[in-house]
Design a protein that fits this description.
By secondary structure, the protein is α/β, with parallel strands linked by helices. The protein has 8 helices and 7 strands; from the N terminus they run E-H-E-H-E-H-E-H-E-H-E-H-H-H-E. A 7-stranded parallel sheet has the order 3-2-1-4-5-6-7, with helices on both faces. 44% of the residues are buried.
Length: 266
Amino acid sequence: MTVLDSFRLDGRVALVTGGNRGIGLAIAGGLASAGAAVAVLSRSEPPAPPGSAAPPALPAPAASRTQIGNLGFAEWIRGDLADLDPEAVVERVVTSLGRIDILVNNAGIIRRADAVDTTDQDWADVIGVDLDAVFRLCRAAGRVMLAQGRGSIINVASMLSFQGGIRVPAYAAAKHGVVGLTKALANEWAGGGVNVNAIAPGYIATDNTAALRADPRRDAAIVDRIPAGRWGGPEDLAGTAVFLASDAARYVHGAVIPVDGGWLAR
């Protein structure tokens, strides 16, 4: 096997949450292009990832094959993590596609308000999706992966896993928690062949950052602080996800990899 071969994901099954757009879609497309059969969990149907090939032939119900058509993904699970049972989601992937080798916890929500104006409901909603659901999905997938003797879990953290941010107290708390959870699970599961790591995106042009980019002063201040001199795009995350999901990262456990254009180095 060459070094490049170790990045291939042929025969592996991945679940990507929030994979219908933005960072999740880019990561799902990257995993599919590396050979994985990708199940996408999202509230709306994802488009075909640019340049993606058809997913590898793996067992899937006829209804699912009809449903996904030419999406380039092996399965689409429609739903919202605020309402779904994460264990049922993992069970569906295993039932439909035969196994689960990769889990990418990307789905998240954000509520912007001064801390004194943040409601209990907003706090609960953000923590519920951005941290509670992440743990429950990790737990469900981890059981399967430990039984298989291999697997990779990639949690999507944030620059606010290191910083406090402005007017997003629940989001910052949740993303700090994601990093702690990533390290705790890595400590427990590394010996069982399961890699647990995180990607910390910098300022990426997605729906979640639309309000910042629409504010000329905030936009200019952010770009001025990024050594790369630009906002990142969702596609900038795909390569890091493929690496962490692959055998090339088999000795990487509990890492939090910033993909931030140099933001943290500034």
